[in-house]
Amino acid sequence: EAQVTQNPRYLITVTGKKLTVTCSQNMNHEYMSWYRQDPGLGLRQIYYSMNVEVTDKGDVPEGYKVSRKEKRNFPLILESPSPNQTSLYFCASSLAAGGWETQYFGPGTRLLVL
Amino acid sequence: ILNVEQSPQSLHVQEGDSTNFTCSFPSSNFYALHWYRWETAKSPEALFVMTLNGDEKKKGRISATLNTKEGYSYLYIKGSQPEDSATYLCAFLNGGTYKYIFGTGTRLKVLA
């Protein structure tokens, strides 16, 4: 089944404890992206990747890191999480960033930073 | 940050009513406009990808139009059903940066 998977789905952590949220897609997609969803603010793009080893900042990259060593995986790293990073996170992928390609979203990861 | 605005923020309609929402976006660096349907506790699902000025797309009772010159897109739902209840998101893809800017969505509730 074609899908985008994220792990974990739910996470409670404490300030400063490094964590990684994994994202994997099995559709051979080139474009992958991370978003955060906060009430009243809509989905905001954190980082995106046009292809392997190519990553760029979205609109809210502060406090996050990403890597794209393989086409299928795009992990989101919080080196020192803070309470303002409590949010719902979505990973998404599309065949290419060609405009006509739709994005497929993962199931979401709900993060609480205490 | 370029703004994408959606209106109205929320909408309650009766079953069988037709309705429409608006998405306004920057008219410069346009590459594509996406519409998504987002049900509570699920992930956003793509409805339409629109790339050309004057585009009209249709899927069942849902259709969308695009005006890139003036920077707006309309989403129409004909004969709303309770299962249409969801948040409808639009997203602008910037052709210079390949960044997506999402609107905050229109929350639709269809009353039986």
Write up this protein.
The complex is a heterodimer of chains A (114) and B (112). With 114 residues, chain A is mostly beta strands. Chain A is built from no helices and eleven strands. In chain A, the strands form two sheets. In chain A, strands 2, 4, 5, 6, 9, 10 and 11 form a seven-stranded mixed beta sheet that branches. In chain A, strands 1-3-8-7 form a four-stranded antiparallel beta sheet, with no helix packed on it. In chain A, a hairpin with a 2-residue loop joins strand 5 (42-51) and strand 6. Chain A is globular. The radius of gyration of chain B is 14 Å and the shape is globular. The chains are: A mainly beta (114), B mainly beta (112). The interface between A and B is medium-sized, with 26 and 23 residues.
Portion in helices of chain A: under 10%
Largest interface: A-B, 26 and 23 residues
Number of helices of chain A: 0
Extended strand count of chain A:
11
Radius of gyration of chain A: 13 Å
The main β sheet of chain A shows up as: 7 strands, mixed
Strand content of chain B: over 45%
Structural class of chain A: mainly beta
Low-confidence stretches of chain A: none
Query: H/E element string of chain B?
Result: EEEEEEEEEEE
Globally, the shape of chain A reads globular
User: Topology as H/E string of chain A?
Assistant: EEEEEEEEEEE
The computed structural class of chain B is: mainly beta
Q: How would you briefly describe this protein structure?
A:
The complex is a heterodimer of chains A (114) and B (112). Chain A is mostly beta strands.
What key attributes describe this structure?
heterodimer, A: 114 residues, mainly beta, seven-stranded mixed sheet, 50% strand, B: mainly beta, six-stranded mixed sheet, 56% strand
SSE order and pairing:
The complex is a heterodimer of chains A (114) and B (112).
Chain A: E1 4-7, E2 10-13, E3 19-25, E4 31-38, E5 42-51, E6 54-57, E7 65-66, E8 76-78, E9 87-94, E10 104-105, E11 109-113
Parallel strand pairs in A: 2-11
Antiparallel strand pairs in A: 1-3, 3-8, 4-5, 4-9, 5-6, 7-8, 9-10, 9-11
Chain B: E1 5-7, E2 10-14, E3 19-24, E4 30-38, E5 45-50, E6 56-59, E7 62-67, E8 72-77, E9 86-94, E10 100-102, E11 106-111
